[in-house]
Amino acid sequence: MGNDLETLSIHLRLVTPDDSNDILTWRNDPLTRMNSETSHEISPQEHDQWLQKALQDPARFLLMAMTKEGKKIGFIHFKEENGKTTVSLNIAPQERGKKYSAHIIHEAIEKYQLERAHQPIIARIKKDNAVSTKSFLKAGFKLVEAGDQYDIFQWGEV
Ligand SMILES: CC(C)(COP(=O)(O)OP(=O)(O)OC[C@H]1O[C@@H](n2cnc3c(N)ncnc32)[C@H](O)[C@@H]1OP(=O)(O)O)[C@@H](O)C(=O)NCCC(=O)NCCS
């Protein structure tokens, strides 16, 4: 897939509580809200409680994509439920459109499979989110279910 994260000088690490403000700011960005399952503005209290729980939840795996200079690029969230894992990605608004997304998705999945589970990985993408659809297809996902509001994509061979 062209240039990988190493060439782009990006690496992935686990999320820590210190990432809280960045993740909240990106989550409350208008485009992210529009493309999320719930679109209300999240308060700092609601977010802190959510992140604290998520970091302790064995069914979740949270990654931060970073440049080698230490700039945060994007948040990747894996959530295991009923034998499947759902992945979502939020690129920092100022870093969007720089063609990072497919590489980040691809390497985040490799890391998830190495460190956590081998089970079907899916992405639920709103039908009008063409940029996200492109990113996940480019990373190696395939459309497995077309719904009214969401399309479901699955990683790898299906
Ligand atoms: C969706 C998202 C993850 C994509 O990441 P990104 O870094 O902006 O996307 P990229 O720069 O890697 O571009 C992906 C593709 O979309 C195209 N693209 C990017 N921005 C675009 C835009 N504003 N309009 C049209 N096409 C666009 C790129 O050209 C690229 O396609 P190509 O490889 O065929 O040229 C990011 O925009 C984001 O975080 N959005 C808000 C949250 C969200 O929707 N998350 C996904 C929920 S599952």
From TrEMBL:
Where do transmembrane segments lie in this chain?
A: none
Kindly name one Pfam family recorded for this protein: Acetyltransf_3
- Determine the domain of life of the protein's source: Bacteria
The terms under GO molecular function for this entry are: acyltransferase activity, transferring groups other than amino-acyl groups
PROSITE patterns with a match to the protein in the record: GNAT (PS51186)
InterPro entries named among the record's database cross-references: Acyl_CoA_acyltransferase, GNAT_dom
N-acetyltransferase domain: which residues? 10-158
PANTHER family (alphabetical): ACETYLTRANSFERASE-RELATED, N-ACETYLTRANSFERASE DOMAIN-CONTAINING PROTEIN
Write down what this protein is called.
Answer: N-acetyltransferase domain-containing protein
